[in-house]
Amino acid sequence: MGKRWVTEMSPYEYESLRFKLRRHSGxxxxxxxxxxxxxxxxxxxxxxxxEVARISTVSSRWRQAWRYHPDLIxxxxxxxxxxxxxxxxxxxxxxxILKDHYRTAVNKFKVNYGLCEDHGDxxxxxxxxxxxSKAKNVVLDLRPAPKCPDNVYNFPLHLFDDRSSSCVLSxxxxxxxxxxxxxxxxxxxxxxxxxxxxxxxxxLHCMLxxxxxxxxxxxxxxxxxxxxxxxPLDHLQYACxxxxxxxxxxxxxxxxxxxxxxxxxxPVVLGKFHKLTKAEIExxxxxxxxxxxxxxxxxxxxxxxxxxxxxxxxxxxQQFMTNNICDFINLRHLNMEVLVGGNPGCSRGILRLASxxxxxxxxxxxxxxxxxxxxxxxxxxxxxxxxxxxKLSHLKRVHMSGFADLRGQVELAWYILEHATAHxxxxxxx
Length: 430
Hints:
Elements: H1 2-7, H2 11-23, H3 37-45, H4 49-55, E1 71-75, H5 76-80, H6 87-100, E2 108-112, H7 120-132, E3 137-141, E4 153-154, E5 170-174, E6 176-178, E7 192-196, E8 199-200, E9 216-220, E10 223-224, E11 226-228, E12 238-242, E13 248-251, E14 258-263, E15 268-270, E16 278-283, H8 290-297, E17 306-314, E18 333-341, H9 348-358, E19 365-372, E20 397-401, H10 407-419
Parallel strand pairs: 1-2, 2-3, 3-5, 4-6, 5-7, 6-8, 7-9, 8-10, 9-12, 11-13, 12-14, 13-15, 14-16, 16-17, 17-18, 18-19, 19-20
Helix pairs in contact: 9-10
Protein backbone atom coordinates (compact mmCIF):
# COMPACT_ATOMS: atom_id res chain seq x y z
CA MET A 1 0.00 0.00 0.00
CA GLY A 2 3.06 2.30 -0.06
CA LYS A 3 3.44 5.31 -2.22
CA ARG A 4 0.06 5.35 -3.95
CA TRP A 5 -1.85 5.19 -0.66
CA VAL A 6 0.07 8.09 0.82
CA THR A 7 -0.28 10.42 -2.13
CA GLU A 8 -4.06 9.95 -2.27
CA MET A 9 -4.73 10.70 1.41
CA SER A 10 -6.98 13.62 2.28
CA PRO A 11 -5.89 16.29 4.81
CA TYR A 12 -8.15 14.57 7.39
CA GLU A 13 -6.31 11.28 6.82
CA TYR A 14 -2.96 13.03 7.26
CA GLU A 15 -4.05 14.26 10.68
CA SER A 16 -5.29 10.76 11.58
CA LEU A 17 -1.95 9.33 10.54
CA ARG A 18 -0.11 11.74 12.80
CA PHE A 19 -2.15 10.74 15.87
CA LYS A 20 -1.83 7.03 15.09
CA LEU A 21 1.93 7.35 14.98
CA ARG A 22 1.93 9.01 18.37
CA ARG A 23 -0.46 6.48 19.91
CA HIS A 24 1.36 3.31 18.86
CA SER A 25 4.60 3.24 20.82
CA GLY A 26 5.71 0.22 18.80
CA UNK A 27 5.79 2.47 15.72
CA UNK A 28 8.35 5.21 16.19
CA UNK A 29 7.65 8.58 14.59
CA UNK A 30 10.80 8.21 12.56
CA UNK A 31 8.89 5.97 10.15
CA UNK A 32 7.62 9.16 8.58
CA UNK A 33 11.21 10.13 7.90
CA UNK A 34 11.46 7.19 5.50
CA UNK A 35 8.91 8.58 3.04
CA UNK A 36 10.38 9.49 -0.36
CA UNK A 37 10.95 13.19 -0.97
CA UNK A 38 8.44 13.34 -3.84
CA UNK A 39 5.75 11.84 -1.60
CA UNK A 40 6.39 14.46 1.06
CA UNK A 41 6.21 17.23 -1.53
CA UNK A 42 2.96 15.78 -2.87
CA UNK A 43 1.43 15.80 0.60
CA UNK A 44 2.59 19.35 1.25
CA UNK A 45 1.14 20.63 -2.02
CA UNK A 46 -2.34 19.54 -0.87
CA UNK A 47 -2.24 21.46 2.43
CA UNK A 48 -2.29 25.13 3.35
CA UNK A 49 0.76 26.73 4.91
CA UNK A 50 -0.96 26.69 8.31
CA GLU A 51 -1.76 22.98 8.01
CA VAL A 52 1.82 22.25 7.03
CA ALA A 53 3.03 24.07 10.13
CA ARG A 54 0.78 21.87 12.27
CA ILE A 55 1.75 18.61 10.62
CA SER A 56 5.43 19.48 11.02
CA THR A 57 5.21 18.05 14.54
CA VAL A 58 4.94 14.52 13.09
CA SER A 59 8.71 14.02 12.83
CA SER A 60 12.00 15.86 12.99
CA ARG A 61 12.36 15.75 9.22
CA TRP A 62 8.93 17.29 8.74
CA ARG A 63 9.75 20.20 11.02
CA GLN A 64 11.65 21.70 8.10
CA ALA A 65 9.19 20.58 5.42
CA TRP A 66 7.02 23.72 5.52
CA ARG A 67 9.98 25.68 4.17
CA TYR A 68 9.37 23.97 0.83
CA HIS A 69 5.64 24.72 0.68
CA PRO A 70 4.66 25.61 -2.92
CA ASP A 71 1.75 27.96 -2.11
CA LEU A 72 2.56 31.09 -0.12
CA ILE A 73 -0.70 32.91 0.60
CA UNK A 74 -0.56 35.87 2.96
CA UNK A 75 -3.86 37.32 4.16
CA UNK A 76 -5.60 38.11 7.43
CA UNK A 77 -7.46 34.81 7.26
CA UNK A 78 -4.35 32.74 6.63
CA UNK A 79 -2.05 34.47 9.13
CA UNK A 80 -4.34 35.64 11.91
CA UNK A 81 -7.58 33.61 11.56
CA UNK A 82 -9.47 36.64 10.29
CA UNK A 83 -8.37 39.10 13.02
CA UNK A 84 -6.49 42.11 11.67
CA UNK A 85 -3.49 42.86 13.90
CA UNK A 86 -2.33 45.89 11.95
CA UNK A 87 0.18 46.68 9.20
CA UNK A 88 3.29 46.18 11.34
CA UNK A 89 2.30 42.70 12.54
CA UNK A 90 1.31 41.64 9.02
CA UNK A 91 4.59 42.84 7.48
CA UNK A 92 6.64 41.27 10.28
CA UNK A 93 4.89 37.91 9.88
CA UNK A 94 5.37 37.80 6.10
CA UNK A 95 9.03 38.79 6.37
CA UNK A 96 9.67 36.07 8.99
CA ILE A 97 8.10 33.35 6.83
CA LEU A 98 9.92 34.38 3.66
CA LYS A 99 13.22 34.58 5.53
CA ASP A 100 13.05 30.87 6.42
CA HIS A 101 11.55 29.63 3.16
CA TYR A 102 13.95 27.84 0.80
CA ARG A 103 12.64 29.63 -2.33
CA THR A 104 12.11 26.38 -4.21
CA ALA A 105 9.22 25.21 -6.38
CA VAL A 106 6.81 28.03 -5.51
CA ASN A 107 3.58 27.63 -7.44
CA LYS A 108 1.43 30.46 -6.05
CA PHE A 109 2.53 33.66 -4.33
CA LYS A 110 -0.32 35.81 -3.03
CA VAL A 111 -0.52 38.89 -0.83
CA ASN A 112 -4.01 40.08 0.10
CA TYR A 113 -3.78 43.03 2.49
CA GLY A 114 -4.33 46.78 2.36
CA LEU A 115 -0.79 48.12 1.98
CA CYS A 116 0.36 51.15 -0.01
CA GLU A 117 3.49 52.95 -1.21
CA ASP A 118 4.51 53.56 2.44
CA HIS A 119 5.39 49.85 2.53
CA GLY A 120 6.95 49.89 -0.94
CA ASP A 121 10.29 48.47 0.20
CA UNK A 122 8.64 45.47 1.86
CA UNK A 123 6.36 44.86 -1.13
CA UNK A 124 9.33 45.13 -3.50
CA UNK A 125 11.18 42.57 -1.41
CA UNK A 126 8.25 40.16 -1.43
CA UNK A 127 7.86 40.42 -5.20
CA UNK A 128 11.62 39.96 -5.58
CA UNK A 129 11.19 36.73 -3.61
CA UNK A 130 8.40 35.65 -5.96
CA UNK A 131 10.63 36.24 -8.98
CA UNK A 132 13.69 34.50 -7.52
CA SER A 133 11.60 31.51 -6.41
CA LYS A 134 10.19 31.25 -9.96
CA ALA A 135 6.59 31.58 -8.81
CA LYS A 136 4.14 30.67 -11.56
CA ASN A 137 1.09 32.49 -10.21
CA VAL A 138 1.46 35.93 -8.62
CA VAL A 139 -1.41 37.79 -6.92
CA LEU A 140 -1.08 41.21 -5.29
CA ASP A 141 -4.39 42.47 -3.92
CA LEU A 142 -3.86 45.63 -1.87
CA ARG A 143 -7.46 46.37 -0.94
CA PRO A 144 -8.81 48.35 0.83
CA ALA A 145 -7.57 51.44 -0.98
CA PRO A 146 -5.29 53.94 0.82
CA LYS A 147 -6.87 57.15 2.07
CA CYS A 148 -4.71 59.18 -0.30
CA PRO A 149 -5.03 58.12 -3.98
CA ASP A 150 -1.47 59.32 -4.64
CA ASN A 151 -0.19 56.72 -2.18
CA VAL A 152 -1.05 53.74 -4.39
CA TYR A 153 1.81 51.24 -4.67
CA ASN A 154 4.07 51.49 -7.73
CA PHE A 155 4.45 47.95 -8.99
CA PRO A 156 8.14 47.17 -9.71
CA LEU A 157 7.93 46.04 -13.32
CA HIS A 158 11.73 46.23 -13.54
CA LEU A 159 11.89 43.08 -11.42
CA PHE A 160 9.92 41.25 -14.11
CA ASP A 161 12.17 41.75 -17.10
CA ASP A 162 11.95 39.38 -20.05
CA ARG A 163 14.23 36.79 -18.45
CA SER A 164 13.00 37.00 -14.85
CA SER A 165 9.31 36.95 -15.75
CA SER A 166 9.53 33.88 -17.97
CA CYS A 167 8.19 31.66 -15.15
CA VAL A 168 5.18 33.87 -14.39
CA LEU A 169 2.12 32.35 -16.06
CA SER A 170 -0.61 34.21 -14.20
CA UNK A 171 -0.61 37.76 -12.80
CA UNK A 172 -3.44 39.41 -10.86
CA UNK A 173 -2.96 42.96 -9.56
CA UNK A 174 -5.41 45.08 -7.55
CA UNK A 175 -4.83 48.70 -6.56
CA UNK A 176 -1.41 49.25 -8.09
CA UNK A 177 0.21 51.77 -10.40
CA UNK A 178 1.97 50.41 -13.50
CA UNK A 179 4.60 52.60 -15.15
CA UNK A 180 6.47 50.51 -17.75
CA UNK A 181 9.97 51.79 -18.54
CA UNK A 182 10.88 52.26 -22.22
CA UNK A 183 13.10 49.16 -22.11
CA UNK A 184 10.49 46.90 -20.47
CA UNK A 185 9.92 43.99 -22.86
CA UNK A 186 6.74 42.64 -21.32
CA UNK A 187 5.82 39.29 -19.79
CA UNK A 188 7.04 36.64 -22.19
CA UNK A 189 5.02 33.60 -21.08
CA UNK A 190 2.05 35.22 -19.36
CA UNK A 191 -1.13 33.20 -19.88
CA UNK A 192 -3.48 35.19 -17.64
CA UNK A 193 -3.50 38.92 -16.83
CA UNK A 194 -6.10 40.37 -14.45
CA UNK A 195 -6.02 44.04 -13.45
CA UNK A 196 -8.55 45.65 -11.14
CA UNK A 197 -8.48 49.31 -10.12
CA UNK A 198 -5.03 49.64 -11.62
CA UNK A 199 -3.52 52.75 -13.16
CA UNK A 200 -1.51 52.15 -16.34
CA UNK A 201 0.56 55.11 -17.48
CA UNK A 202 1.09 53.88 -21.05
CA UNK A 203 -0.72 51.85 -23.67
CA LEU A 204 -1.47 48.43 -22.23
CA HIS A 205 0.41 46.66 -25.02
CA CYS A 206 3.62 47.63 -23.18
CA MET A 207 2.73 45.00 -20.59
CA LEU A 208 2.81 42.19 -23.13
CA UNK A 209 5.68 40.72 -25.07
CA UNK A 210 5.61 40.91 -28.86
CA UNK A 211 5.34 37.12 -28.77
CA UNK A 212 2.45 37.18 -26.29
CA UNK A 213 0.75 33.88 -25.50
CA UNK A 214 -2.00 35.46 -23.39
CA UNK A 215 -5.15 33.34 -23.02
CA UNK A 216 -7.12 35.25 -20.38
CA UNK A 217 -7.41 39.06 -20.07
CA UNK A 218 -9.50 40.90 -17.48
CA UNK A 219 -9.43 44.70 -17.06
CA UNK A 220 -12.00 46.08 -14.62
CA UNK A 221 -12.39 49.57 -13.11
CA UNK A 222 -8.91 50.55 -14.28
CA UNK A 223 -7.48 53.83 -15.56
CA UNK A 224 -6.12 53.05 -19.01
CA UNK A 225 -6.21 55.65 -21.75
CA UNK A 226 -5.36 53.43 -24.72
CA UNK A 227 -5.35 49.74 -25.52
CA UNK A 228 -3.78 49.14 -28.91
CA UNK A 229 -2.91 45.58 -29.87
CA UNK A 230 -2.29 45.80 -33.59
CA UNK A 231 -0.62 42.38 -33.54
CA PRO A 232 -3.13 39.53 -33.15
CA LEU A 233 -3.42 37.78 -29.79
CA ASP A 234 -3.82 34.36 -31.33
CA HIS A 235 -4.07 32.52 -28.01
CA LEU A 236 -6.59 34.83 -26.32
CA GLN A 237 -9.83 33.02 -25.46
CA TYR A 238 -11.40 35.23 -22.78
CA ALA A 239 -11.50 39.04 -22.64
CA CYS A 240 -13.25 41.22 -20.08
CA UNK A 241 -12.91 45.01 -20.47
CA UNK A 242 -15.15 47.01 -18.14
CA UNK A 243 -15.15 50.60 -16.89
CA UNK A 244 -11.55 51.44 -17.75
CA UNK A 245 -11.95 55.04 -18.99
CA UNK A 246 -10.53 54.04 -22.36
CA UNK A 247 -10.30 56.61 -25.13
CA UNK A 248 -9.80 54.01 -27.86
CA UNK A 249 -9.31 50.29 -28.25
CA UNK A 250 -7.84 48.01 -30.88
CA UNK A 251 -7.99 44.28 -30.38
CA UNK A 252 -7.44 41.38 -32.75
CA UNK A 253 -8.18 37.99 -31.22
CA UNK A 254 -9.31 35.46 -33.84
CA UNK A 255 -9.74 32.65 -31.29
CA UNK A 256 -11.71 34.59 -28.67
CA UNK A 257 -14.64 32.58 -27.27
CA UNK A 258 -15.96 34.83 -24.45
CA UNK A 259 -16.18 38.64 -24.55
CA UNK A 260 -17.47 40.93 -21.78
CA UNK A 261 -17.38 44.63 -22.55
CA UNK A 262 -18.60 47.78 -20.78
CA UNK A 263 -17.19 51.10 -22.00
CA UNK A 264 -18.18 54.45 -23.48
CA UNK A 265 -18.95 54.75 -27.19
CA UNK A 266 -15.27 55.20 -28.06
CA PRO A 267 -13.38 54.58 -31.32
CA VAL A 268 -13.09 50.82 -31.66
CA VAL A 269 -11.08 48.65 -34.04
CA LEU A 270 -11.89 44.98 -33.60
CA GLY A 271 -10.74 42.13 -35.78
CA LYS A 272 -13.26 39.47 -36.66
CA PHE A 273 -14.00 37.21 -33.68
CA HIS A 274 -14.80 34.12 -35.70
CA LYS A 275 -14.95 31.70 -32.75
CA LEU A 276 -16.91 34.00 -30.44
CA THR A 277 -20.37 32.60 -29.74
CA LYS A 278 -21.34 34.39 -26.51
CA ALA A 279 -20.87 38.00 -25.37
CA GLU A 280 -22.06 40.60 -22.87
CA ILE A 281 -21.86 44.22 -24.04
CA GLU A 282 -22.79 47.45 -22.28
CA UNK A 283 -22.31 50.86 -23.90
CA UNK A 284 -22.06 53.64 -21.31
CA UNK A 285 -23.48 56.64 -23.13
CA UNK A 286 -26.07 59.37 -22.59
CA UNK A 287 -26.79 59.47 -26.31
CA UNK A 288 -28.34 56.86 -28.56
CA UNK A 289 -25.99 53.88 -28.92
CA UNK A 290 -28.04 51.27 -30.80
CA UNK A 291 -26.42 51.89 -34.17
CA UNK A 292 -22.93 52.15 -32.63
CA UNK A 293 -23.36 48.87 -30.74
CA UNK A 294 -24.24 46.84 -33.80
CA UNK A 295 -22.15 48.66 -36.42
CA UNK A 296 -18.90 48.75 -34.43
CA UNK A 297 -19.15 45.87 -31.93
CA UNK A 298 -21.64 43.15 -32.80
CA UNK A 299 -20.74 43.27 -36.51
CA UNK A 300 -17.27 41.93 -35.63
CA UNK A 301 -18.83 38.75 -34.25
CA UNK A 302 -20.18 36.89 -37.31
CA UNK A 303 -20.76 33.60 -35.49
CA UNK A 304 -22.41 35.05 -32.39
CA UNK A 305 -25.17 32.78 -31.02
CA UNK A 306 -26.07 34.46 -27.72
CA UNK A 307 -25.61 38.08 -26.70
CA UNK A 308 -26.69 40.30 -23.80
CA UNK A 309 -26.81 44.06 -24.42
CA UNK A 310 -27.31 47.13 -22.25
CA UNK A 311 -27.61 50.39 -24.18
CA UNK A 312 -29.35 53.73 -24.57
CA UNK A 313 -32.03 54.59 -27.13
CA UNK A 314 -33.26 58.08 -27.96
CA UNK A 315 -36.86 58.27 -29.12
CA UNK A 316 -36.02 60.70 -31.90
CA UNK A 317 -33.19 58.60 -33.37
CA GLN A 318 -33.72 57.01 -36.78
CA GLN A 319 -30.31 55.70 -37.87
CA PHE A 320 -29.64 52.00 -37.65
CA MET A 321 -26.90 50.09 -39.47
CA THR A 322 -26.98 52.49 -42.39
CA ASN A 323 -23.25 52.19 -43.04
CA ASN A 324 -22.81 48.48 -42.48
CA ILE A 325 -25.83 46.42 -43.41
CA CYS A 326 -25.29 42.75 -42.57
CA ASP A 327 -27.31 39.88 -41.21
CA PHE A 328 -26.51 38.29 -37.87
CA ILE A 329 -27.37 34.91 -39.27
CA ASN A 330 -26.17 32.80 -36.33
CA LEU A 331 -27.75 34.82 -33.50
CA ARG A 332 -30.27 32.67 -31.64
CA HIS A 333 -30.61 34.27 -28.22
CA LEU A 334 -30.83 38.07 -27.77
CA ASN A 335 -31.18 39.77 -24.36
CA MET A 336 -31.55 43.54 -24.31
CA GLU A 337 -31.88 46.07 -21.49
CA VAL A 338 -32.69 49.42 -23.03
CA LEU A 339 -32.79 52.83 -21.38
CA VAL A 340 -35.18 55.00 -23.38
CA GLY A 341 -34.87 58.78 -23.27
CA GLY A 342 -35.71 61.83 -25.29
CA ASN A 343 -39.03 63.19 -26.54
CA PRO A 344 -41.93 61.27 -24.96
CA GLY A 345 -44.06 62.09 -27.97
CA CYS A 346 -41.88 60.19 -30.42
CA SER A 347 -41.38 56.44 -30.76
CA ARG A 348 -39.09 56.05 -33.76
CA GLY A 349 -36.14 55.05 -31.56
CA ILE A 350 -37.60 51.89 -30.08
CA LEU A 351 -39.30 50.89 -33.32
CA ARG A 352 -35.83 50.46 -34.83
CA LEU A 353 -35.74 47.16 -32.96
CA ALA A 354 -38.08 45.82 -35.63
CA SER A 355 -35.34 46.45 -38.20
CA UNK A 356 -32.87 44.74 -35.88
CA UNK A 357 -35.04 41.63 -35.65
CA UNK A 358 -35.15 41.42 -39.44
CA UNK A 359 -31.35 41.08 -39.43
CA UNK A 360 -31.53 38.01 -37.15
CA UNK A 361 -33.18 35.31 -39.28
CA UNK A 362 -32.22 32.48 -36.90
CA UNK A 363 -33.34 34.19 -33.67
CA UNK A 364 -35.25 31.89 -31.32
CA UNK A 365 -35.41 33.85 -28.04
CA UNK A 366 -35.82 37.61 -27.61
CA UNK A 367 -35.88 39.19 -24.14
CA UNK A 368 -36.40 42.96 -23.91
CA UNK A 369 -36.52 45.04 -20.74
CA UNK A 370 -37.20 48.75 -21.13
CA UNK A 371 -36.29 51.50 -18.65
CA UNK A 372 -37.41 55.09 -19.03
CA UNK A 373 -35.16 58.06 -18.45
CA UNK A 374 -38.03 60.46 -17.80
CA UNK A 375 -40.73 61.06 -15.22
CA UNK A 376 -43.10 62.45 -17.82
CA UNK A 377 -46.01 60.24 -18.91
CA UNK A 378 -45.61 58.70 -22.35
CA UNK A 379 -48.51 59.40 -24.64
CA UNK A 380 -46.87 58.71 -27.97
CA UNK A 381 -48.17 58.04 -31.41
CA UNK A 382 -46.17 55.42 -33.25
CA UNK A 383 -44.20 56.57 -36.25
CA UNK A 384 -44.60 54.47 -39.35
CA UNK A 385 -41.49 52.43 -40.09
CA UNK A 386 -40.79 50.56 -43.27
CA UNK A 387 -39.58 46.99 -42.93
CA UNK A 388 -38.82 44.35 -45.51
CA UNK A 389 -41.62 42.13 -44.28
CA UNK A 390 -39.19 39.26 -43.63
CA LYS A 391 -40.74 36.57 -41.47
CA LEU A 392 -39.22 35.73 -38.09
CA SER A 393 -39.55 32.06 -38.84
CA HIS A 394 -37.44 30.70 -35.95
CA LEU A 395 -38.60 33.00 -33.14
CA LYS A 396 -40.18 30.82 -30.45
CA ARG A 397 -40.15 32.86 -27.26
CA VAL A 398 -40.46 36.60 -26.59
CA HIS A 399 -40.46 38.34 -23.22
CA MET A 400 -40.99 42.10 -23.06
CA SER A 401 -41.03 43.93 -19.73
CA GLY A 402 -40.90 47.49 -18.47
CA PHE A 403 -44.05 48.62 -20.29
CA ALA A 404 -45.24 52.21 -19.95
CA ASP A 405 -47.81 54.18 -21.91
CA LEU A 406 -45.54 54.18 -24.97
CA ARG A 407 -47.22 53.38 -28.27
CA GLY A 408 -43.91 52.33 -29.83
CA GLN A 409 -43.64 49.31 -27.53
CA VAL A 410 -47.13 48.18 -28.46
CA GLU A 411 -46.31 48.59 -32.15
CA LEU A 412 -43.13 46.55 -31.71
CA ALA A 413 -45.04 43.76 -29.96
CA TRP A 414 -47.64 43.80 -32.72
CA TYR A 415 -44.92 43.61 -35.38
CA ILE A 416 -43.44 40.52 -33.68
CA LEU A 417 -46.84 38.82 -33.50
CA GLU A 418 -47.43 39.48 -37.18
CA HIS A 419 -44.05 38.21 -38.40
CA ALA A 420 -43.16 35.36 -36.03
CA THR A 421 -44.37 32.07 -37.47
CA ALA A 422 -42.80 29.50 -35.10
CA HIS A 423 -45.21 28.36 -32.37
CA UNK A 424 -47.09 31.67 -32.42
CA UNK A 425 -45.13 33.40 -29.59
CA UNK A 426 -46.99 35.73 -27.28
CA UNK A 427 -45.07 38.71 -25.86
CA UNK A 428 -45.42 39.13 -22.09
CA UNK A 429 -45.36 42.56 -20.50
CA UNK A 430 -44.86 43.72 -16.92
